[in-house]
Write a structure and sequence with these properties.
about 190 residues; UDP N-Acetylglucosamine Acyltransferase, domain 1; 13-stranded parallel beta sheet; about 15% helix; about 35% strand; repeat
């Protein structure tokens, strides 16, 4: 469902993107080329700053937002998901938040008030808030990061994790094409 927010903003979705009919996109949302937005995703840009303005939620080209993901922003803060990034099932991205290019965020993870650098990997069931994750870092499953100091124990991404992230991104780009073909069959 595509709908306006109370400020009158309507999502802008590239025609090459696929948005599952069960997903809800509301407000000042920009979806790039070849993006896959899976079932039951909620992307909602509707809160404003004290001055009445809001920054957008931007989903970069060739990224995938998988089943049940919620993307929202506190008080109109900006959320950016870079290009070729994967946000896995039931994760929460809550702004203000910036996720770089070719990032993998694992199942049930939560990102809030943080910056995640290019090619970083946040594995399943992790919490990342209040910090700047450097590029190519790997945050293991079930890790809680609450400050830049907590990052001192994090290792860099190995080629295996980078290859996995790349495979997930390309698999979902292929899904976009397949689902776009099926749209005329309903």
């Amino acid at each position: 469902m595509i709908r306006k927010n109370p400020s009158g903003d309507l999502p802008v979705i590239d025609e090459s993107a696929f948005v599952d009919p069960t997903a809800i996109l509301c407000g000042k949302v920009f979806v790039g080329a070849n993006v896959f937005i899976g079932p039951y995703v909620v992307i909602r840009a509707d809160e404003t700053k004290d001055d009445g303005t809001m920054d957008p939620i931007v989903i970069g080209a060739n990224s995938n937002i998988q089943d049940g993901v919620v993307i929202h922003s506190k008080s109109g803060g900006k959320v950016v998901i870079g290009e070729f990034s994967s946000i896995a099932h039931r994760s929460i991205i809550h702004g203000p938040c910036e996720v770089g290019n070719r990032v993998f965020v694992g199942f049930n993870s939560v990102l809030f008030n943080c910056v995640v650098g290019d090619e970083a990997v946040v594995r399943h069931n992790s919490v990342v808030e209040g910090c700047h994750v450097p590029p190519r870092f790997h945050i293991p499953s079930t890790t809680a990061i609450h400050s830049d100091t907590d990052l001192s124990t994090i290792e860099q991404v190995t080629p295996d994790f980078a290859d996995f992230s790349e495979d997930v991104a390309h698999t979902n780009i292929n899904l976009v094409q397949g689902y776009k073909r099926l749209q005329n069959e309903f």
